[in-house]
Amino acid sequence: MKDTFTDANFPRTAEGRVYHLGVRYGEVANRILTVGDPSRAKRVAQFLDAKPEPFTLLSDRGFLTITGTYQGIPVSIIAIGMGIANMDFFVRECRESVVGDMAIIRLGSCGGLLEDLPVGSLTVPRTAVAITRNYDYDFTAPEDDRMLSSSSVEDHPYRISRPVDGNRQLRESLVEFLDTTRDAQTKTAIVRGDVVNAACDGFYGSQGRKTSFPDHNEHLLEALMQRVPGVATLEMESHHLYHLASIYPSLPTPASKRMSAVSTPAILDREAGAYFILGTQPPAALSTLPTELSESPSRVTGGIYASSVHIIFAQRTSRDVITPEDAESRERWAGKACLETLKVFGIKNSHPDESSVWALAQG
Question: How does strand 191-192 pair with strand 164-165?
Answer without folding.
Answer: unpaired
